[in-house]
Amino acid sequence: MDVGLSYLTLDRTAKTLSGGEAQRIRLATQIGSQLMNVMYILDEPSIGLHQRDNDRLIKALKNLRDLGNTVLVVEHDKDMILEADHVIDMGPAAGVHGGTIVAEGTPAELMLKHTLTTSYLNGERSIAVPDKRRPGNGKVLTLKRLPGITLKKSTLTSL
């Protein structure tokens, strides 16, 4: 629940999980073990999460930190960045044009600097929703309930 996986069921095989789901399952296991003095390195753990679950994930990561662990997160999510203790902004651009530390500090300190990342964090830049969407191909996906399969209420609200 704390890492945004309340919709998973025990009959789902591991090979059907996305990379982010598998990573969050491992994270949930670690949270449950209450280990201390461990370094956790997570790559984009918030991908695909609903905002409510993203907030839970941030809280879970802070709990790991508060146990005395180091939590290093590679992330592009605004809320995750703004909740960090320390941010290292790599750039100045992506791919071969990056790899240099362009800014670092607390989120508040970072917001005082002018980087590509802070321009998105402070609302100076944004990724616009397209005015026109691509036309569909005319096909539809229909979901049907199988006879004898009962979904729990919590599963229904997660869909």
Helix content: 25-40%
Question: Helical segment tally?
Answer: 6
What general form does the structure show?
flat
Report strand order across the widest sheet: 1-2
Mean pLDDT: 86
Main beta sheet: 2 strands, parallel
| Number of DSSP strand runs | 4
Overall structural class, as computed from helix and strand content, comes to: alpha+beta
Radius of gyration: 19 Å
Uncertain regions: pLDDT < 50 for 5+ in a row?
154-159
Q: Report the portion of residues in β strands.
A: 5-15%
> N- to C-terminal separation?
14 Å
**H and E string:** HEHEHEEHHH
How would you describe this protein?
The structure is a single chain. It is flat and about 60 Å long. The longest helix has 16 residues, at 51-66. It has helices at residues 19-33, 51-66, 78-82, 107-111, 116-121, 153-158, and strands at residues 39-43, 70-74, 87-91, 100-105. It is built from six helices and four strands; from the N terminus they run αβαβαββααα. Helices cover 33% and strands 13% of the residues. The relative contact order is 0.11. It has a two-stranded parallel ribbon with strand order 1-2. The model is unreliable at 154-159 (pLDDT under 50). The protein has 159 residues and is α+β, with helices and mostly antiparallel strands.
Question: In brief, what are we looking at here?
Answer:
With 159 residues, the protein is an alpha+beta fold. Helices cover 33% and strands 13% of the residues.
Key traits:
159 residues, alpha+beta, two-stranded parallel ribbon, two-stranded antiparallel sheet, 6 helices, 33% helix, flat
